[in-house]
Fold each of these.
Amino acid sequence: MPFQRLVREIAQLSHNDLRFQSHAILALQEAAEAYLVGLFEDTNLCAVHAKRVTIMSKDVHLARRIRGERP
């Protein structure tokens, strides 16, 4: 339910009358989880490369930059 509420809140920022099928919410949640798992895997690789066991925000930034998600 929290994820569904988040999706609806974000949707209301641009459109007032959007409706979502339950399968659409599930698909969005699965896609978001898959993205985050992959990002954290890449982030962990960046931390390991720096000879650390703890991930840091700079690892997330580096992982996103390598992926081409941000400059």
Note: Helices lie at 2-14, 22-49, 57-67.
Amino acid sequence: MSIDTELLNAPPEKLVIDKVDKCFETSRGRVTALENISLTIREGEFVCLVGPSGCGKSTLLNIVAGLESPTKGQITADGKPVTGPGSERLMMFQESALFPWLDVMGNVMFGLKLKPKLNDKERREIAKFYIRLVGLEKFQHSNIHELSGGMKQRVALARSLAPNPRVLLMDEPFAALDAMTREQLYGDIQEIWSQRKKTILFVTHNVREAVCL
């Protein structure tokens, strides 16, 4: 197969990071967190950004999410400039950030408020599907304080997937978990990715984690 044919058959570009700089003004002067970063991620790809703490990888993820603006350069999603947060790009953080006053079902349904055209029955059916997908169907009515750390992250994953974002951004979501739970979640996220073919940008400082994923 020729290079031209491979390019024609390649999936469409989902995210394009084009010569992005990010600088912060501090009491000690200007600090450059990112300089001339370029990256193209195609639809359905699972891309890991690996680096030590403080290298700017989470800053880049925040810019892709639209939570911060680049000092220079541009990011486009599906060919459109990223100028702020959007339901097509959802973030999963290191902490599960679940609402303790809602049960598992309520937390996953909350993410579906991004889809105002859905009625309550439709939201509930979608939430059930993703709760089942992450293996928590027996715990859908459990309170958050009754769940382990790994189960909470599964709920957070279901909540992120339920609105059907085009891109899932994951900022070291397994860093606070024990080794055995992380191993289980590696398998879960790989299986979900293979089933749903989501475009995923995953940030980690763990080289082994990046290789496993």
Note: The first strand starts at residue 13 and ends at 26.
